[in-house]
Amino acid sequence: MTALINLVYLISVSLFIVGLQRLSSPKTASSGNLIAALGMGLGVLIALFSPMESGNDNYLIIIGALVFGSGIGLVVAGKVLMTKMPEMVSLFNGLGGACALLISIAELLNFHDSGTFELAPYLTTLLALLIGSIAFTGSLVAYGKLSGNIKDSWKLPRANMINVVLLLTLIAASVYQLQVLDTMDLVYIIMILSLIYGITFVLNVGGADMPVIISILNALTGVSAALAGIIYDNMIMLMGGILVGSSGGILTLLMCQAMNRSLLNVLAGDFGGTSSGAVQVGDQMVKEVNIMDASIMLRYSTNVVIVPGYGMAVAQAQKICKELEDLLEEVEVNVRYAIHPVAGRMPGHMNVLLAEADVDYSKLLDLDDANKFLNDADVTIVVGANDVVNPSALDDPGSPIYGMPILEILKGKHVIVLKRGMSSGYSGIENPLFFHEKTSMLFGDAKKSLNNLLDELKTIV
Amino acid sequence: MNLIIEIFTYHLTILFALIMAIFLGFELISKVPTVLHTPLMSGANAISGVVIIGAIILVRSSGSEDYVSLALGSLAILLGTINVVGGHAVTNRMLQMFRKK
Fold it and tell me: Catalytic residues of A, which ones?
């Protein structure tokens, strides 16, 4: 019986690995997700029916919670808008963290009730509690920020100092608890401090840095799951947790690289608004373009590049982009999408929105491919992107984003920027792109402008 | 120091698995193209819900009078299941969009 159980656990771990492996191509990715889900299902079945040494099984409660939870999960997953994906992922991630937090507390209580325990499992459980708590409240705050319920301006004074003090206190309290181990009192304090730390550390990070934060929180939940796996000596929890931890870890690094910033710099939240050395653009003129001229430019181009940003998601303009693409492709204009790794609020956010609008993924270019293609671009349309196309990153050492790899859209012939008004981007950094001789501005709501452009184009193709 | 020795004796095989898993994870994930980063993240997120297995074991091993463990454990199963089922379902929805041409 034990052999059979171990065999099934082995199979379900393998299914996780195969599932993730199949995510390496859009063609196989869908089956990869289902394979991973199958692995999860097998793991749950074994956990439900393997023989236990003690306890009353309590199947009624377990099945009830499983059924109820599945129902909620399915309904929420079926309803959510693709533009709301970052919020959704944060919320789900928080629930995973909460799950780790709850079982760690229960296990620690059991340790203290039984009176006899070893230090190593106790430490593991305490760590799972700590990390799970941070992931829980951190994800909830990220959810609040992404959905707009928590404003970006709500920052604590001296937030960095508060965070460092909280973190040091957490470490000190944990070490002390391991020395004395007498009561649960300090464990509750550690839990509360971790919950508070989760809030303060995410609150301090700017909205444009959300891709990094979501990745970190994802990694933390993975690590807390892996630690819980060590507590139960359960390989599938350990492997699953570590795979998630690696995924979150890699994405965190990629996102930081894409912004040319260190993780510490992102967490410290001190970005933008202080562009002392940035170019003075106050008295420069911007050039506007009207719908008719813009559509003629597009009609007689060979290569058109669309650069989407968070503004496209806000305006829900992805479907209009696709219509524009279709119309232009009909008259043999090549259309490509140039997607910066940190465009949007989570890694790959723009790709999902465009896939939703039926854009072929071979037309979605990543940073390197896009910068090659941009050499031959006749017209580049910027739809709600700002910092990722800011040329200060290339040539202005005084700019806070100097050194960040950007989409070099000025290599092409013309740039049309769709923008509501002349406010600077999310990070508050001036963008000299808008004043460049190659750039024309098309003011107004992105979706409305694209619609007008589409109507005008229909009359001339 | 004693703690470190204890950890090594207590969890030796699991430490080996841990190291292997970390390398395997980095190897696997770095092959995922940027186009699929959002589904990767939500799929990984669903997998992190694997903690429900711990929650199930916790509830099963509790006596029917142990109300604290039962309450904590069943709440953990509920939240974890939302994470697992919702995560996989939403990932599936996204990946379906990538599959169609």
Answer: 387
Q: A173 φ, ψ to 5°?
A: -65, -40
Q: Is the ipTM of this complex over 0.95?
A: no
End-to-end CA distance of chain B: 59
A77 lies within 8 A of chain B by CB:
yes
Side-by-side strand order, sheet with A379-383: A364-365, A334-338, A303-308, A379-383, A414-419, A439-443
Between chains, do A347 and B53 touch, taking CB under 8 Å as contact?
Answer: no
The reply to whether residue B28 touches residue A246, judged by beta carbons under 8 angstroms, is: yes
Closest CA to A89 of A247, A207, A265, A218: A218
Tokens 């509790």 identify what position?
B62
Residue spans of beta strands (DSSP E) within A168-311:
303-308
Domain boundaries, given as residue ranges, for chain A: 1-50, 80-268, 291-460
Q: In this structure, are residues A43 and A9 in contact, taking their beta carbons and an 8 Å threshold? A: yes
Using a CB–CB cutoff of 8 Å, tell me whether B15 touches chain A.
Answer: no
Chain A positions touching B45 (Cβ under 8 A) are 89, 92-93, 96, 218, 221, 244
**Greatest extent of chain B over all pairs of C-alpha atoms, in Å:** 60
3-class state of residue B79 by DSSP: helix
Q: At what angle do helices A318-330 and A446-460 cross, to 10 degrees?
A: 20
Q: Which residues contact B101 (CB under 8 A, 6 or more apart)?
A: A360
Q: How far apart are CA A263 and CA A256, in angstroms?
A: 6
CATH topology assigned to domain A291-460: Rossmann fold (3.40.50)
Distance set, CA A339 to CA A101, A324, A366 (Å): 37, 17, 5
Own/partner long-range contacts of A433-438 (Cβ < 8 Å, ≥24 apart): A433/A382, A433/A389, A433/A390, A433/A391, A433/A409, A434/A281, A434/A286, A435/A281, A435/A284, A435/A285, A435/A286, A436/A391, A436/A410, A437/A287, A438/A410, A438/A412, A438/A413, A438/A414
For residue B59, the chain A residues in CB contact (below 8 A) are 58, 61-62
Q: Can you give the pLDDT of all 461 residues of chain A as single tens digits?
A: 788 888 998 999 999 999 999 999 988 999 999 999 999 999 999 999 888 888 788 899 999 999 999 999 999 999 998 888 999 999 999 999 999 999 999 999 998 888 877 888 899 999 999 999 999 999 999 999 988 888 877 778 888 888 899 999 999 999 999 888 888 889 999 999 999 999 999 998 877 788 899 999 999 999 999 999 988 888 899 999 999 999 999 999 988 988 888 888 888 776 544 333 344 445 567 888 889 899 999 999 999 999 999 889 888 899 999 999 999 999 999 999 999 998 888 888 999 999 999 999 899 999 999 999 999 999 999 998 888 999 988 888 888 888 889 999 999 999 999 988 776 555 567 788 888 889 999 988 889 999 999 999 989 87
